[in-house]
Each structure stands twice: as C-alpha cells, then as structure tokens.
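lol ok so funny story. i was supposed to be doing the assay writeup but got distracted and ended up predicting the structure for this chain instead. priorities right. anyway since i did it might as well share w the group, maybe its usefull for someone
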Amino acid sequence: VMKLFPGFESCHVQPNSWHQYGSGKENNGVVRNKGYSYVISPGFWKAGNDKPWLPRLSSGVYCQNVQKMLKSGDPWQLVLSFNEAGEGTMIEASNSWSSGTPYGYYLDCLHGIVPVSAAKTTVMLQWLLWVLIMFLVAACNF
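and the output, tada:
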C-alpha cells in the first residue's frame, strides 16, 4: 500500500492499494479516495501553529463521519489518530472531550458503531501505516 500522488493511477506498476493521509480540512474531517481509502480526523492542530488547521469536530459530526466511512466500502478505512498529539489528531481519552465514560466521545463513537473485528483491523492498519511512513522517512534520509 502506497501513499497516492498526482498521476498515481497511470503508473505501470501498481501496489495492492493506495491511501491518502490528510486532515480533511476541505471536507469536515474526511479524506476519501473512492475505491482506495477513507480517512477521518477529529481535527488537526499542528504543534507550534497559532490556530487549528481543522477545528475539533463535535461528537455528532465525528460519529457521522465514522458511519459514512464504514458504509463507503473502501478497503482502507483509517482513523487519525489515537495519540498523535503533535498534530492534534488524537482521540484517546481526554478531559477536553469527556463523555461520562472513561474513554471520551471519540472512542465512544468508534466503540458504538464499529464492529470489534473492524476496530482491531483499523488499529492494526494505523500501526502499519506508521511503520511504513517511518520506513519511507528513514529511506529518504539516506
């Protein structure tokens, strides 16, 4: 699986699939490449910036995005991210989005909507994506 780029579909050699990493600023927290990947983000506020690129989504909007992602049928369904504080995309438990459960409304939404097998796959895919990105970064530095 490779990160897509302009003209990716015309490459002679094609990987098993493509994905696009992004915050979804233009589409309310969603980056979709139909038939390839569907990425949702709760917001995006990169460390050091004065204001967010994508302000934090409400629980209602985030849960709608989760439902749309699952219905999309796209093979890569990615959640940004469990604990990426440097980009402000984390969904781990926090007082900032508490919900009356120990988890907070972002995880409550995933727990209430995503089947357990899909949730395990999503976490595994997020980890694999991180490993791939780190590998590519290391390779580009040589």
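The mean pLDDT is 83. The two ends are 22 Å apart (CA to CA).
back to the writeup now i swear
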